[in-house]
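Illustration 12: Phosphoethanolamine transferase.
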Amino acid sequence: EIVSKLKTITLSLVIIFIIIFSFSKFYTSFFREHKPLRYNVNPIYWIYSIGNYVHKTLDTAPTVLKDIGLDAKVVENNSETKELIILVVGETARADRFSLNGYSKETNPLLKQENIVSFTNMYSCGTSTAHSVPCMFSIFPKDEYTYKKGASTKNVLDVLNNTQDVAILWRDNNSDSKGVALRVDYED
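Figure caption equivalent — predicted structure in token form:
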């Protein structure tokens, strides 16, 4: 009877792992965006804790933040008026589905009414926000970007902040800046 129960448990675990791995992109993205959930799912939290402990134990070297763009300067505008630039980051939006960029369906009629610039030659660095946002604001091309490089090098917002002439405010309406706006004013 014990052997039969062990076979059933083993078969159940194999089926569970097959299901989880076949939908791993969904689960990875879901748990990345909803971090507090892992604290509530107590039966598996110990696995995360062990992994976190091992990662922190093996990767003990302190991250040294490399300065870039310390000599950055703002080119003076001839007019007396200040310029306000609002950058909307939609790193998972598909440019080929924007009517602004020639898509046949009217997908963004309100944006067409505004005086905006659509950057049609922009590409996200990955399929997850946690990877693509820091990559987009880094100095590295997408094929050279790694999390470690991005976390150890200042980004575009830091360079603009170095000028002392640009006021930066990161306003978030979703899942934080993924480390991009750590050293600038931030509103959630």
